[in-house]
Amino acid sequence: MMKADVIVVGGGISGLSTAYWLLVKGVKRVIVLEKSYLGSGSTFRCATGIRASFTSEEHIIAMRESIKLWKDLSEQLDFPYMRGGYVWLFTQEDQMKIYEEYSRLHNSLGVPTRIVDSREVQRLVPVIDIRNILGGLYDPLAGKANPFKVMYAFNETIRKLGGEILTGVNVTKILTKGERIVGVQTTKGTIESDNVVVAAGYGSRKLLEQLGVSMPLKNIPHHAVITEPFKPAFNPLVVDVSTGAYIVQTFDGGFIMGAEIEDIEDGPLIPRIEFMKTVAKIWLKFFPWLKSINFLRYWVGYYVVSPDHHPIIGPINRYKGLYVAAGFSGHGFMIGPITGKILAEWILEDGPKIPQLRRLSYQRIEEGRLIEEKAIIG
Asked: What residues contact residue 29 under an 8 Å CB cut-off, 6+ apart?
């Protein structure tokens, strides 16, 4: 029978980051279990963006710390990462006042966003049509990374550090003895461990339900498209504040675009023609030249949404040795580096020292201390 010091359930960015930090901090035997292939859930379906321009202390500080790690990890693990910024577009007068307030909060917490006029928007995004733009919020700390190369780099490094990654292995049950974790049952047999981290994306809720742990998570389908490659046009990820739609050019030249359309919880992950019409209509207003570029691929993935759109990262106090990383609400990739570090600190050091990071644990859900987040897109 296999044994581990820590079992990580889920081979997305959260799971691999957790394994990496545990190994770096000296844990000897870490096993990652992924039911499909690495990144097969939300990680390989994300929009690549990384930002700290949120509206709560908890989100801003968590993302700020994650951005610091993105830079360090990109150099240490050798994957492409770029601080090209975010530009939030204003087309209505009231948006300027709202985002001025957000910017003051960002600045007070060390994130240097600023309000810019339409001419500055055009300087940052030279190919944009600014006729309907009043101004914007510029977040220079924000950026993007290639999810595929990030995951491959984590995979290689984890294996070099002595960790094990098993794909095609589905965890069917978390095993307990009284109020203590003792391992997991999988489709390939039982693995013993005193510590289990559940970072299974849209599968986290059902897995924890077996233990009587109610995770109030909703799996909501979100849609995205990517175009054929195009010459370099702009570096920032651009957000239309009025619709919540986004567009970003990848390192390989394609434009990833997302927009909100109505969908149902746990709905099927299938393409919908109305999405393509919606996203095209929004971005042709700002980039009329996009009409000459073809859509290349379309995909759908789940936003695993928590009640307050903040992640749940940390221990489940009902069971000794049970930890969770879930409910990222579309932001799991960008917060991935700090997610793993937070979990490693909960497992090895009684939690992170930064109080805002401690407040992301499941305890806030149990006590009804929800945190408001207003800057949700996609």
From this structure: 3, 4, 5, 6, 162, 164
- CA dihedral in degrees (374, 240, 293, 231; nearest 10)? -90
Share of the chain above pLDDT 70, in %: 100
Residue with tokens 């510590």: 195
- Supply the CATH classification number for the domain 83-141+218-305: 3.30.9.10
212-254 pLDDT, tens digit per residue, is: 999 999 999 999 999 999 999 999 999 999 999 999 999 999 9
Please give the full DSSP string across 315-378, using - where no structure is assigned.
E-TTSBTEEEEE-BTT-HHHHHHHHHHHHHHHHHHSS-SSHHHHTTSTHHHHHT----------
> CATH 3.30.9.10: which residues of the chain?
83-141+218-305
- pLDDT (mean) for 178-200: 98
* 263 three-state secondary structure: coil
CATH of the structural domain 2-47+148-216+308-367, one choice from 3.50.50.60, 1.10.10.10, 3.40.1190.10, 3.30.830.10: 3.50.50.60
* Per-residue confidence (pLDDT) for residue 377, from 0 to 100: 74
* C-beta neighbour count of 230 within 10 angstroms: 17
Is residue 265 packed enough to be buried (19+ CB in 10 Å), middle (13-18) or exposed (0-12)? exposed
